[in-house]
TrEMBL record:
Residue ranges of domain Glycosyl transferase family 3 N-terminal in the record: 6-70
Protein name: Anthranilate phosphoribosyltransferase family protein
Domain of life: Bacteria
SUPFAM superfamilies: Nucleoside phosphorylase/phosphoribosyltransferase catalytic domain, Nucleoside phosphorylase/phosphoribosyltransferase N-terminal domain
PANTHER family reported in the protein's UniProt record: ANTHRANILATE PHOSPHORIBOSYLTRANSFERASE, SLL1634 PROTEIN
Entry annotated with the keyword Cell membrane: no
GO MF annotation terms: glycosyltransferase activity
Upper lineage: Bacteria, Bacillati, Cyanobacteriota, Cyanophyceae, Synechococcales
Pfam family, one: Glycos_trans_3N
The keyword Amino-acid biosynthesis belongs to this UniProt entry's keyword annotation: yes
Residue ranges of every copy of the Glycosyl transferase family domain listed in the record: 103-335
Keywords: Amino-acid biosynthesis, Aromatic amino acid biosynthesis, Glycosyltransferase, Transferase
Amino acid sequence: MSNAFRELLKKVGSGTHTSKALTRQEAATAMGMMLTQEATPAQIGAFLIAHRIRRPTGEELAGMLDAFDQYGPQVPAIQSEKPVVILSQPYDGRDRTLPLGPLTSLVLAAAGIPVLQHGGDVMPTKAGVPLIDIWQGLGIHWRSLSLGQIQEILQNTDIGFVYLPEHFPLAHGLVPYREQIGKRPPLATVELIWCPYSGPAHIVAGFVHPPTELMMREALNLRGITEFTTVKGLEGSCDLPRERTGIIGLNRSLEGSESFSRLRLHAQDYGFAGKNPPWQGLSPGLREIKAVLAGEPGELHQALVWNSGFYLWQFYPMQTLEEGIQLTQELLEKGIVQEKLNQLQKMTHCRSISA
């Protein structure tokens, strides 16, 4: 048993009226002791569920991210005039709507915007489809690649993926606790705003509940990150909804000062009203994705154009959302997105064989 960890646990787990938030340094220490398993399984489980009940503060999240930086991987920086977009998704996956993340990454990369994703395998508590399975179904083999190979692929194709079991086994070692405590721990929020990249980056983080967004914003601001985007997306992802208002937070640094603005987008105002395609399993999902890449129209095509059009507007950059939508349609119609997938398939296949 770690006596040092026990003191931190007592602080956050003392009850509604007596528990106290950890300082940033204390949160970093606690996270480090959990990653290295210096804390016992009983202590780790107790800490995660106590923190889940009390809810972490932005300062605590900042400390946990400090520990992720200390113990976790970072893809070395590539040569790029544009910051790498960190397109985050909940690690425990999706089970209601078809994920757009891989397709959106391909569209952005086809436009010359580098994108880095990260995640693991099927994970509690939701146990939805993880992005790695969709990439695998598209012929992209991320699982066996080293960080150096990920950097090379990111440099040449503008797409990369950090795979938790291979690249951050310490964090992967905490996955079983999610099943045992039966609830998403604060780690799930940390993962949404983690940046496993050493160069200039722009984090895009999805959220469900407004208090979570406030915590994420505070944590990122404390860490000196002034350029990031938050999205009240589908199932906590970065995928913009079509059937309801898209609520987006834009944190930007302008002329030395930081500003936060709220953007509300209505898909129907741009001709994209409808519902995002439901998730019906990996095989049907892959068929839909491949059909879109082949140029077939449908609901998934509409969802992708709406989603990617927004991100092209933000990162290309363009003057209007309509320009982003138009460019997305052109990239799909001309087969440039499919060409990007073909390029990525060849590179990852060659590197996975040599790994």
